[in-house]
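lol ok so funny story. i was supposed to be doing the assay writeup but got distracted and ended up predicting the structure for this chain instead. priorities right. anyway since i did it might as well share w the group, maybe its usefull for someone
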Amino acid sequence: MAYNDIIILMHNAIESRVFPMTNIDRIRQAMPKYNCDSMFITEDIDRLFATGFSSSAGVLFITMNDAWCFIDSRYIEAAKAVITDANVMLYKSSEPTFNHIKKTIKDNNIKNIGFEDMLVSYTAHKDLQKVFDVELVPAQKLINELREVKSRADLEGIIKAQRLSEDVFNEVLPLISTDMTEKDLAAEIIYRSLKKGADDMSFSPIVVSGPNSSRPHGVPGNEKIVNGFLTIDFGVKLNGWCSDTTRTLCVGKPDDEMINIYNTVLKAQETGINAIHGGVKGFDVDAAARKVIADAGYGDYFGHGFGHTQGLEVHESLNASPLSKHILPTGAVISAEPGIYIPGKYGVRIEDTIYITEDGSENITKLPKKLIVI
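and the output, tada:
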């Protein structure tokens, strides 16, 4: 290797430590792979990923040399305080939003623009094509692939959200009784999550007891909690990151079949987790867990997949299911949530959040999994 080459490598290494790569840098670096001269981002979550700023409206335009975030008056002050690696510009409802982008396209001889093809409507696509008058290149996969792999800093954000939700679970546990309704318990979870600092819930809490627990995504009702299985599934959003946890408890003493079903689900979950490592197929993880449930005679009662990836959204692009063709990369975060649901009788689901490493995984959920009897 020539002396000059060594100096360049040393310079790049030092520069990367002093100026760590931002997500806009990562998008820019990936654009040539997707034959994009630029990237046009409108989806709230994708803009949050790229800039670290969350808003219900806005447009981000990235070229190989620069980036602009167009925000209306509701968010302009907050955006300028957060976004550091893009030019934050105010757009007014009375002015054409894309005039600056059109000028940038012309000045930089941009031939095409990557766009979020899985999210942009047919009508919006036609409008963009007319306004920009350059080729629009489907590039949602570019964003998804970058979002799939979490840095350790990203993981710390998810862990903080997870710890908050676990604190909430431990706080509501002593409150649970047959004197409260499913909605009462769901309301306590929401109230205590927000009081502890959550920005929002990842999704509406699932609180289902007795026969209702056979519904994996059952809605909390006005019925009082009854003896039998009680499934609690909820998560919080904290600084953009989502948590997701499920525990199934038993109100009153469980019978032998209930204990067997619970232990079968727990064994299936642990088997699936043990099958996880960077580069594994989602199908294979699901199959490992599913075999445990099938061998126990409950194969017909496990209808959903083993897990889904999560991060800035509680359900992201990859999953582990019987139909999954996804390769789970090192750095992805995935739920581990097999279940058994016998219609009209009861159901059990146990869910942890797993960080995928090169040779295995790290379980970031710290709640106990022994069956809790109330």
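The first helix runs from residue 3 to 18. The CA atoms of residues 229 and 258 lie 8 Å apart.
back to the writeup now i swear
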